[in-house]
Amino acid sequence: MHETFLRQAIGLAAENVASGEGGPYGAVVVKNNRVITASANKVTSALDPTAHAEILAIRAACKELNDYQLTGCILYTSCEPCPMCLGAIYWSRLERVYFACNRFDAATANFDDSFIYDEIAIPPQNRKIPMLQIALPDATAPFDIWNRKIDRLLY
Amino acid sequence: MHETFLRQAIGLAAENVASGEGGPYGAVVVKNNRVITASANKVTSALDPTAHAEILAIRAACKELNDYQLTGCILYTSCEPCPMCLGAIYWSRLERVYFACNRFDAATANFDDSFIYDEIAIPPQNRKIPMLQIALPDATAPFDIWNRKIDRLLY
After folding, report:
1. What are the chain A neighbours of B153 within 8 Å (beta carbons)?
2. CA-based Rg of chain B, rounded to a whole angstrom?
3. A21 included as an active-site residue
4. Which residues neighbour B78 within 8 Å (Cβ) at sequence distance 6 or greater?
5. Sheet architecture: strand order including B73-79
6. Residue A69 — φ and ψ, nearest 5°?
7. Tell me: the pLDDT tens digits for A26-76?
8. Cβ contacts (< 8 Å) between A60 and chain B: which residues?
9. Are A37 and A64 in contact (CB under 8 A)?
10. ipTM of predicted assembly, 2 dp
11. Which residue pairs from A18-22 have beta carbons closer than 8 angstroms and sit at least 24 positions apart in sequence?
């Protein structure tokens, strides 16, 4: 069963290269053994650097299920999720992920997945894209307001 | 100058809690000292777990600049980017990031940023959301096709 869904993700990835719509990646979201959504990478055709297959499949599945979380859903993806997609997997509360290739396979095709994983371990200010904290007196005000808000919708 | 843009991001975050459209986060994309886009978190109102302030600001800036990369742009965000947004920052080739709060401030409001950073360091199969590789003979076929494609559009 897992192999069937994973093959579907791989098929999407291969077709996507042929169509020229984006990178060689595909992903499928499944709930109760039923495919909810299936997407391929659309970064270059959608002019959207976040349009990875997993992100698009997660966003579409949320729309399909009318929810901002995917509890009980499984993601099948042609390649190990990059840190962006990994984050999206946690925020969407997916149950589990199956992948075929890994970040090192992606590196053989010059994709940055492995590089980005390496960057995360480096202190923010020393990264190739420097991320610098500036201390401001009112910086935590939004969190303070949030914590006091009684009807806040948790996610 | 940095403080001005950062304050704008913090202001967006605070207003967003009051409006009830999402979490206490705001982000601004700047190019040549001009604000290109400014966004707040819309996860719960857009039913989209990827609708973090940074992701929305990046996606909107790409649309504005008609490009899938943001070379020469700076991101100002009310809080240190989570791993999802960090990934998006690398994929969009932003030049630099400034943030006000950090992942530990976010944790005081029960957001998972710090937890997700911790999960990344754990082997995929042992994470709270298990990520399992299944070896398939044709797994790398999409990368092989990609590498052979002469007119592939790199990103």
Report:
1. 20, 44
2. 18
3. no
4. A139, A142, B6, B9, B10, B12, B13, B24, B25, B26, B27, B53, B99, B100, B101
5. A131-133, B96-101, B73-79, B26-31, B34-40
6. -135, 155
7. 999 999 999 999 999 999 999 999 999 999 999 999 999 999 999 999 999
8. none
9. yes
10. 0.97
11. A18/B145, A20/A45, A20/B151, A20/B153, A21/A45, A22/A46, A22/A51, A22/B155
Give the position of tokens 């790398």: B140
Calpha distance B36→A139 (Å, rounded): 22
Beta carbons of A139 and B10 less than 8 Å apart: yes
Give the list of residues 6+ apart from residue B150 with CB closer than 8 angstroms, or none. Answer: none
- Cα–Cα dist A5/A16, whole Å: 17
Partner-chain contact B131 A80, CB within 8 Å: yes
pTM of the prediction?
A: 0.97
pLDDT in tens, B37-63: 999 999 999 999 999 999 999 999 999
Interface probe, candidates A129, A132, A138, A150, chain B, greatest B C-beta count within 10 A: A129
Give Cα separations from B33 to A108, B4, B75, B81 (angstroms). Answer: 37, 11, 11, 21
Task: Specify the residue for token string 């494609």.
Answer: B149
Gap between the Cα atoms of A39 and B152, Å rounded: 19
- For B101-153, how does the pLDDT look when each residue is reduced to its tens digit (9 = 90+)? 999 999 999 999 999 999 999 999 999 999 999 999 999 999 999 999 999 99
The H-or-E segment that residue A97 falls in is: strand A96-101
Interface of A with B in 65-94 (CB under 8 A): 66-70, 78, 80-94
